[in-house]
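> forwarded from #structure-qc
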């Protein structure tokens, strides 16, 4: 059983929307009454900001300042608004009578709907569940209090979502009709004899093998998922393929040989590696012989060196006692001391000195 729809109570901003006239709509206005209870509108979502800016708790992305449609109910309901799109998941937010009612079809986004009971003006916002979604949609207005749990065979609809890994695969029905590209969302109208029958869809993507997904068509939401496998390699021009039977080599049945129908490719042969030459005997491997070195060249016989000449040793002459050794001249010997009683001989005067004598 589906969970009850979300009823969001808002503050003064929503009261102003409900009590005053709604803003000018983006796609137009619609009047519904008991005489004309059905209508269908269309448009495209504008994911400008989060829907919580319109009312806390509302899902999706929309333009909170400009509604997509304005609905005038001339008489009391109930009337049900239902939005559907084949391009992406949707959500509804309807403001009026001091409240904002939001729905996203339990998060699936296939057919969100809101039921209105009172006459008046309502601002209808159609939101996308993707932040960058610009999905074309169809908005229908029908009398009644929303879809019941009992399935009406004449108006049953199956909402399908087809996903693939990788995405971008074309979804084809049994007749080869293109229904969309994954991730694809589309609705199928089921006739009286189509409810419960199996349905097969083919996913086709370039570079991948065709993959089929199956389901049983019933009223409600169905999500299908498939993993695409890479396509097989194309055959060679000579008609042989890489998937031919392997031929075992003679004498060794466990080793597969060349593929049947095609020659074994020639591989270049590499020369056998030469063992390294080790010149250091301390690091010689045990299995490697000692290296052979060339003989050393013969050196000439050296000539004998001459014997050194021995000079006779001359002892130094003794220095007389009292010799004064001066660094500014040769050593000087002191004058002999005259015997006692010898008169002193006056020295030459300054006038009778010879030139050059001190």
């Amino acid at each position: 059983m589906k969970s009850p729809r979300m009823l969001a109570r808002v503050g003064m901003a929503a009261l102003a929307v409900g009590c005053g006239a709604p803003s000018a709509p983006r796609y137009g206005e619609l009047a519904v009454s008991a005489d004309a209870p059905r209508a269908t509108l269309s448009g495209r979502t504008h994911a400008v900001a989060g829907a919580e800016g319109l009312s806390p708790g509302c899902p999706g992305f929309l333009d909170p300042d400009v509604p997509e449609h304005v609905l005038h109910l001339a008489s009391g309901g109930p009337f049900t608004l239902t939005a559907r799109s084949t391009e992406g998941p949707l959500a509804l937010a309807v403001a009026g009578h001091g409240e904002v009612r939001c729905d996203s079809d339990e998060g699936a986004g296939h057919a969100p709907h809101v039921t209105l009971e009172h006459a008046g003006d309502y601002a209808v916002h159609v939101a996308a569940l993707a932040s960058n979604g610009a999905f074309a949609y169809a908005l229908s207005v029908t009398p009644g209090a929303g879809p019941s749990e009992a399935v009406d065979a004449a108006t049953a609809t199956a909402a399908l979502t087809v996903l693939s890994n990788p995405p971008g695969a074309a979804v084809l029905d049994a007749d080869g009709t293109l229904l969309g590209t994954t991730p694809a969302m589309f609705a199928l109208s089921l006739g009286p004899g189509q409810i419960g029958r199996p349905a097969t869809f083919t996913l086709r993507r370039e570079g991948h093998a065709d993959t089929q997904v199956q389901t049983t068509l019933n009223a409600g939401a169905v999500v299908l998922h498939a993993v695409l496998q890479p396509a097989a390699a194309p055959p060679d021009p000579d008609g042989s393929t890489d998937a031919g039977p392997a031929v075992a080599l003679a004498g060794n049945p466990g080793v597969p040989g060349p593929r049947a129908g095609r020659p074994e490719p020639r591989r270049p042969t590499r020369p056998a590696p030469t063992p390294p030459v080790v010149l250091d005997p301390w690091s010689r491997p045990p299995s490697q012989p000692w290296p052979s070195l060339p003989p050393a060249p013969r050196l000439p016989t050296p000539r004998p060196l001459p014997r050194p000449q021995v000079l006779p040793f001359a002892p130094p002459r003794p220095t007389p006692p009292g010799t004064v050794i001066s660094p500014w001249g040769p050593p000087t010997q002191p004058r002999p001391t005259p015997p006692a009683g010898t008169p002193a001989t006056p020295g030459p005067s300054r006038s009778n000195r010879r030139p050059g004598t001190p």
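QC bot note: The helical segments are 12-19. The CA atoms of residues 70 and 123 lie 5 Å apart.
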